[in-house]
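CORE FACILITY INTAKE
Project code: CF-77B
Contact: R.S. (postdoc)
Sample description: multi-component assembly, two entities in total
Requested service: structural model of the whole complex
Turnaround: standard
Below are the sequence entries exactly as provided by the requester. Do not edit them.
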Amino acid sequence: MNARRWQSLTPYLLLLPSAVFLLVFFAYPMAEAFVLAFRAENGEWTLKFFQQMISDVAFAPALQTTLVLIVILIPVQFVVALTMALLVQARLRGSSLFLYIYAIPLGISELAAGIVWFAIFTERGYLNTLLTGLGLLAEPFIFLSYERQGWLLLAVVLAEVWRATSIIMVILVSGLQGIPHEYLEAADVFGATLWDKVWRVILPLLRPSLQVALILRTILAFQVFAVAMAVAGTGITLLAAEAYRWYWSYRNPNVAAAYAALIMALSITSTVLYLWGLRTRSEELAL
Amino acid sequence: MKSQNRLMFGLAILVIAGLALGAMQCPTPPAPTTVPPVATTAPPAATTAPPTATMVPPTATAVHYGDIVWLSTQLRPVAEAEKVRTVILAGFPGRVEFIPEDEGPFHDRIAAEVKAGKGKVDVLGALHGNFSTMAPAGQLQDLTALRASLKDRGIPEAFWKLAQLNTDKTYYVPWMQATYILAINKKALPYLPAGADVNALTYDQLAAWARNIKEQTGSAKLGFPAGEKGLLHRFFQGSLVPGFSGGVVTTFASDDAAVGWKWLVDVWPYVNPQSTTYNFMQEPLLAEEVWIGWDHVARLKDAFGQKPDDFIAAPGPAGPKGRAFMPVIAGLAIPKSCNNQAGAEALIKYLTEPQTQLTTLREVAFYPFVSVTYPPDMPAGIKMMGEAVGQQAAAKDALPALLPQGLGGKGGDFNKVFWDSFKRIVLNKEDIRKVLNEQKVILQDIMNETQAPCWAPDPDSGGQPCQVK
């Protein structure tokens, strides 16, 4: 065998185990699950599961709540993460300790985060005890009532912002470190305010990291459901929660697969939008 | 380094050998000499002679039954499962692997093992409704011989008869029972309407009580388990619909049932709106978010256990057609694909011993079928709940509404009909008649697809799929 030919194949050979692993444990089951949404038990191809999904009582509220959650969650998390990343980048005293503390919630599961925030918002929970103790409320306010959809959504948003903003922050921090100091110094020389620096220098140069972080976070946000179940119970429902219910409670894997296919379609759509909207234009590459 | 290579080689051989040894399991346990000659895996064919009294091993040396796998749809919550493993099974001479499983996967697994002819599961713990689909499918062994050996336990004949599932073979051993009751904080008692007996409430009296509390304290203190894992569907199937209409499936869309749903809509302003987050009523009861809660006894246990002086237990409310309640009958069975026959029978015998039954009662608040004498150290709360359970079953207007049976894998869809009706009628305030008419179509589809006959309190449908009128 030609030694050089073997050598040129080496990278592919090294990739082969991971590729096989991904194919066998991710791609194949995913394809099977996708097919479940279209194929009934007796083998016939049908759209009836999608019809069943769409005509279900909980479909419209689930879709609406999921989209509203994404629209609120992503911008809030982005702003908070960028602020935190800039603070860390400014290397103030204690900033590395702050980074570690801020990343701690990332280590706990979605469900645990939901339970923590449930304990805060429940009728006899920490927030009500604090407010009634301070005299601001005469009696506990029921935040988590199904009638108060706004409060339920707020509790879910808070739990998710608390838990998962560090993902975005870590990616943005690494992106910020790739921005040469000279640009920021030049901006200072030109008399730019902090807002100008952020808007005109940092954000455009941060675009690749932003793209990665936002794609990642949006895809994960479509899969949020344990937090909502822990905080709101049956008060609100999300697409992933409905997929869970259809599989575990109603024992119908086909409709669950239909929900999963819908989530995948939404994730792909948002990814494409991000890739297009945040693409690095050729003129910006002339560094 | 050559010596290092050898070391790694030797280590690798050791690891592989260890894995291989671990994979080889002990095929059969040492057969106790006093167990009658029952075939190990083949279903016991016509065992006519009941085993003699030498069933109980008289030898002083403990007999070890080896590895036994116990698959159960009951005692699934983590706390209960841990109690089973660490406390209830502590005295059993054998290594029991207790596996809690959701109903769907439970049925799937046993069907697969019986179909393959061999399996790992030795003992099954499930509800009467689960067994009622498994027996006709040929998945359960005939336990007539085992039943005869348990004659001295005192399990009522009526429950043994149920365990025959309308045949002449006995398919499960009644293991434990539970039901749903009201747990009431004593702080609610001053608001009880005049003339109402807390141990014999009607739906109207319950509504008036909840209204009194709301009007006089400003808080809604009635609670229902309407959370994700809550058992609210059992309230509809076991109490509300049968109490108002006299049936569950046949009368689902009747005018009487509509009156029942209207009752719930009218009482809902007096129900704590955070009910949609309640899975186990013991938590809001202990936190005093709720003063009157309806739930399964096992999910009220902690409230009675931690603060027995704060609560009283009472039977559920009575509607125009009677005091409907749902008795939960759990049993133990042996699948035809059992591995360890002797161990399986020994485990069932152990679990139905009075001592084990009392331990089970104390740990997970499921009540015995066998006759037991409550020891003085039985917690007051358990005894209190037991009295309410007894009062409910013995009430003059008692109307047992059994758990849904014959639905197999469609049990979830059946429950969804009631959950969707609740969400649309009570939470979304849709028109009751419209919702019932739409949901009854779905219900009928489920009954037709599963071919499930009617169950009490619906009149017997003679084996035909139950029809919604």
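Facility notes:
- Residues 71-235 of chain A form a domain with the MetI-like fold fold (CATH 1.10.3720.10).
- The radius of gyration of chain A is 23 Å.
Invoice: internal transfer
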